[in-house]
Design goal:
The complex is a heterodimer.
Chain A: H1 21-24, E1 42-48, E2 54-60, H2 62-65, E3 70-75, H3 76-81, E4 104-105, E5 111-117, H4 120-127, E6 131-136, H5 143-147, E7 162-170, H6 173-179, E8 182-190, E9 202-208, E10 212-217, H7 225-233, E11 240-244, H8 259-272, E12 276-279, H9 282-288, E13 294-303, E14 309-319, H10 330-333, E15 348-355, H11 370-388, H12 392-399, E16 408-409, E17 415-416, H13 421-432, H14 434-446, E18 450-464, E19 489-495, E20 501-504, H15 514-526, E21 533-536, E22 539-540, H16 561-584, E23 591-594, E24 597-600, E25 603-609, H17 610-619, E26 633-638, E27 656-670, E28 677-687, H18 694-713, E29 745-748, H19 774-786, H20 797-814
Helix pairs in contact in A: 7-8, 11-12, 11-19, 15-16, 18-19
Chain B: E1 6-13, E2 16-23, H1 28-36, E3 54-57, E4 60-63, E5 76-78, H2 80-83, H3 89-98, H4 108-121, H5 127-134, H6 145-163
Parallel strand pairs in B: 1-5
Antiparallel strand pairs in B: 1-2, 3-4, 3-5
Classes of the chains: A alpha+beta, B alpha+beta.
């Protein structure tokens, strides 16, 4: 690959104002609901299940069909009759998943019928007239309940509720446990949370010539779902055109799981014979879009007498809801390469289980599978510290991988190319003024105040390896020639006859500023102003270059799409220089690119501008070097070179393209009357390689941290024992608002040019970052404040009050 | 089914007098988007919590998802498309741009309308008061920090103006 990190950086690395903001600040963004529809497009409303688990006995649509303005009413049986096939799932279990209920409903909110009408209001009116008779079945909600063979079964063909059960072993965990001076156990519960992008799902589906369909959707990728959708529709991939609008109103992983609705609306449009638009409302989104899993973790650490963890035994149980919808069970395995986080442990025993229950199906959510893992591990590190009598900072110093061991191969296959974890921790302690905080804590305690300090560190994986999910099957069951690997992302750059530069991305940005960063990179290479570069966002699967890894998820742009763009613009410049050298009849090595033009070295008067050279490429083939193609466009792909392999026979996989590192130090005070948690100080230091745009990176960290803080203090999808969702509105599912948001002290470790071995630009992902550490840091701080062992989130005042009372009563019993 | 009643509404939208026939049950947000055809007002929750749909009615922020179009008849409406014509509108937009106070931009129209009213009426607001005023607008991207910084900058620039 011809890219190199060495580049004059007039623009890259600076916080320039974003290109995107000019339209967004004027209300001129183009979100899904703003896309113009074809004349004749009708609106869809979905009738959803009021039961968590029931057999559908009959659906009477006669009254609904009779409503004036209704075009069609579609049920699960209609969809089957239209030839729909189940959506492929990653887990090899007979648990068919259709985008609409067939025979049975398995969660409250599951689609049961779709009404297509002239307006959404009419469609909703008509949906209320559909009569469905249900035979309710017992609901299974909890993880332990789902594991109980005596519980009701969701998928009859499976006969139980366990979708995945794998046992992974690395190194010699049994030997390590025999040697251990201490064995520390703990059980942790991570809540089902959803990042709830403020823009809900939206889909428009329209068929052309009967056999090709175009679907507009605010889908964030990965386009590995494209073949899944095509297969469910019974068409070839070339017959399925997916268009993503230039603006997506937040996604955070949630907008991966829109794809069943894309299939559903395509089927409905086909049956109804009209283009169909569906805009999800918030109640639908909360009940039936997606969330992360609730996770039960049993953790046992084998610890040496100095506090070093020599082995981990983990039992991870994810509740994936009613169906194991792809890319689940990614939540269990997304962190395979970084199961040991930043610690030196080489022995691992992992039991990974996914269960199905009568809750909304899950999927990727910011910090996918990692927030829950680090919540357990980082709480556990504090327990270990207490046991061996060390400070929480010291226990981490003892266990972190030293810089001298980089690059580092984890026992489960992760390849940490670079990073100084100890220095990052020290910087965070320094920025938080840790020693001063401890003094402040002593003073506060003397005054009877509940003041606590928490630390959490973590390796931040980005750019998922398309192959990691192969681990769901044991090695002997993996099919030859069917393995997956890599994480390819495309880019396309064109220069028109007037020298205008247009970059066409396929990255489906959702606010990360891809247009701005792409323009910054290109501006440096071509010597032009980013303002003069046009960048087209969104995606179109029929006209843009892409791979199944395409999209914006797992914090991948800086290490993939940005690199592909960088490489494409470099190739454009090479071609411009080739043309110039031919025109000047100069040796190619004597022509260089300076300030936006090609000039002969030492003879600045002999120069051609970008505009002149572009003119030649388009207008004057005769002036081009012999054999050179006319025009000026380049398309590229990039995949991190370290993602070249799938899961090996020992279940090792380098599951991510880059691994950053972060250390969070937080101080809290818990109100002794209300038990509200107030964040007193929050410092977070990141080692993410090169920073392409500091303001964008800082914005990502702020957003990521607040998602983690939300999970720590506020957010949880709560169901009652009948499976009714109790947090079905934004009044009940409480997400952080401005008064909940702390100021952060953010810092970065310096980047030594060229030190990243995995990406030419040296930039690692940062989009999830503190979402993965904030829950643990806060739980450690609140545990410290209250003198209790917190093993469950969110830490609502009500819960804290009860846990604190339990502690007080235990103390009084001991007395 | 009951016939749906249709009502004539008159209102000034972003400075221009408008007359439309609307269903009595239609929300102001749907009316602005679907009938008037201005798409900057975003619908995020339709139950009055997220604030994305906030517009100004006679200068006061209202949830257009919880207001009926008929209730706006006879009033003056300003949406995000009209914020630039408000006294501090362009300054707010400029500070948002410079402070990276938006990411996906979906909640931004409601935040700008809300804050346009706030900075005009609370020229001495503290950071805590800004946070409080923002508490009715949910943003899932920014962590709010830069929004507060942008609004603070507008307020402090007003102080600077006053000193001159």
């Amino acid at each position: 690959m011809a890219t190199s990190g060495k580049q004059s950086s007039q623009w890259t690395g600076r916080s320039i104002p974003r290109k995107e903001d000019l339209r967004l600040l004027q209300g001129q963004g183009q979100f899904m609901a703003d896309i113009a529809t074809r004349p004749g497009t009708k609106e869809a409303a979905i009738l959803r299940s009021p039961h968590a688990h029931a057999r559908i006995l009959a659906i009477d649509v006669s009254e609904a069909v009779a409503v004036k303005g209704v075009v069609s009413v579609v049920t699960g049986q209609d969809v089957l009759a239209a030839g729909a096939r189940p959506l492929v799932v990653a887990a090899p279990v007979p648990a068919d998943y259709y985008p609409i209920a067939v025979e049975k409903v398995r969660y409250v909110g599951e689609p049961v019928a779709v009404v297509v009408a002239r307006t959404r209001a009419i469609a909703e009116d008509a949906a209320a007239k559909i009569k469905v008779s249900y035979d309710p079945l017992p609901a299974v909600l909890g993880i332990e309940e789902a594991l109980d063979p005596g519980s009701a079964v969701l998928h009859d063909a499976l006969g139980h509720n366990v979708a995945v059960h794998r046992h992974l072993r690395y190194g010699d965990p049994d030997g390590a446990f025999k040697e251990a001076a201490h064995v520390v156990t703990g059980r942790y519960w991570y809540p089902k949370v959803s990042s709830t992008p403020i823009e809900t799902y939206g889909v428009i589906a329209t068929w052309e010539q009967g056999d090709t369909v175009t679907i507009w959707a605010n889908f964030q990728g990965p386009f590995s779902m494209h073949p899944v959708m095509a297969r469910a529709l019974g068409i070839g991939q070339h017959q399925l055109r997916v268009i993503v609008p230039p603006d997506i109103g937040g996604a955070f992983g949630i907008k991966i799981s829109i794809y069943p609705y894309m299939v559903l609306m395509a089927l409905v449009a086909k049956i109804a014979g009209v283009p169909v638009r569906w805009l999800e409302d918030r109640l639908e989104a909360l009940a039936a879009s997606s969330s992360g899993t609730d996770r039960l973790t049993d953790l046992t650490a084998a610890v040496s007498n100095v506090g070093k963890v020599i082995a981990w035994r983990m039992r991870l149980v994810d509740n994936v809801g009613a169906y194991i919808r792809a890319p689940e069970p990614g939540s269990l395995f997304r962190a395979t390469g970084n199961l040991v986080s930043g610690y030196q442990t080489q022995n691992l025993d992992v039991e990974a289980i996914a269960v199905m229950t009568n809750k909304c199906p899950t999927g990727p959510n910011r910090g996918y599978g990692v927030s829950a893992l680090y919540f357990a591990m980082e709480r556990h590190m504090d327990k270990i510290a207490a046991l061996v009598g060390k400070d929480p900072a010291e226990i981490r110093r003892i266990n972190l991988i030293p810089h001298s061991m980089m690059p580092y191969r984890t026992p489960s296959g992760g390849y940490y190319d670079s990073g100084d974890y100890l220095a990052t921790l020290e910087r965070a302690l320094e920025r938080a003024d840790y020693d001063q905080l401890r003094q402040q804590q002593q003073e506060a305690r003397r005054q009877g105040r509940l003041f606590g300090i928490g630390i959490a560190v973590g390796v931040d994986p980005s750019v998922s390896n398309m192959g990691y999910i192969d681990i769901v099957e044991p090695p002997e069951d993996r099919k030859p020639h069917r393995s997956k690997s890599g994480s390819g992302q495309g880019s396309h750059v064109q220069v028109d006859a007037s020298g205008g530069v247009t970059i066409t991305l396929s990255t489906c940005a959702q606010g990360q500023g891809h247009e701005t960063v792409a323009a910054q990179l290109a501006a440096d290479i071509l010597g032009v102003d980013p303002k003069d570069i046009r960048v087209i966002g969104g995606m179109d699967s029929s006209t843009r270059n892409w791979t199944i890894a395409t999209g914006a998820y797992s914090s991948r742009f800086a290490a993939t799409g940005a690199v592909a763009t960088f490489s494409a613009v470099q190739q454009i410049r090479e071609k411009l220089l080739d043309i110039a050298s031919h025109v000047f009849e100069a040796d190619r090595d004597d022509v260089q690119w300076v300030s936006g033009r090609a000039e002969v070295k030492g003879v600045p008067a002999r120069a051609l501008t970008l505009k002149q050279l572009a003119g030649i490429a388009h207008w004057d083939v005769a002036s081009l070097p012999p054999g050179m193609e006319p025009g000026l466009a380049v398309q590229t792909y990039f995949t991190p070179p370290t993602l070249g392999e799938s899961v090996d026979p020992e279940d090792r996989v380098n599951s991510s393209g880059t691994y950053g590192f972060m250390a969070d130090v937080v101080a809290v005070e818990v109100d002794s009357k209300t038990f509200a948690v107030k964040i007193h100080r929050y410092a977070t230091v990141h080692d993410i390689g090169k920073v392409l745009n500091p303001a964008i990176v800082e914005g990502q960290i702020y957003g990521a941290a607040l998602h983690g803080i939300g999970a720590a203090l506020l957010e949880e999808m709560v169901y009652d024992d009948q499976g009714q969702l109790l947090t079905g509105t934004f009044m009940d599912y409480v997400v952080p608002s401005a008064p909940d948001a702390p100021d952060l002290i953010i810092d970065h470790m310096d980047y030594a040019e060229g030190s990243s071995l995995t990406t030419p630009l040296g930039a690692k992902g940062v989009g999830e970052s503190s979402t993965e550490t904030a829950p643990a840091a806060l739980a450690n701080a609140v545990s410290d404040a209250l003198g209790i062992d917190i093993n469950q989130l969110p830490m609502t005042p009500n819960r804290l009050f009860h846990w604190f009372l339990q502690r007080e009563s235990l103390i009084s019993q001991e007395v | 089914m009951e016939p749906i009643s249709v009502v004539t509404v008159d209102m000034i939208i972003n400075g221009r007098p408008q007359q439309y026939e609307v269903e009595a049950r239609q929300s102001l947000a749907d009316f602005l988007r679907d009938q008037v055809g201005i798409l900057g007002t975003h619908i995020g929750c339709e139950h009055g919590v997220c604030g994305a749909c906030t517009v100004l009615m006679d200068g006061v922020p209202v949830r257009s998802c919880l207001s009926l179009a008929v209730s706006a008849s006879g009033h003056e409406i300003v949406t995000i498309e009209g914020v630039k014509d408000l006294p501090l509108g362009q300054r707010l937009q400029q500070e948002f741009l410079e402070h990276h106070a938006l990411q996906c931009g979906f909640c931004t129209p409601g935040i700008l309308t809300t804050m346009a009213h706030f900075v005009a009426h609370y020229p001495k607001a503290t950071e805590e008061e800004i946070r409080d005023a923002l508490s009715g607008n949910l943003c899932r991207c920014t962590g709010y920090h830069n929004i507060i910084a942008a609004v603070s900058a507008v307020i402090s620039s007003r102080h600077d103006d006053a000193k001159r």
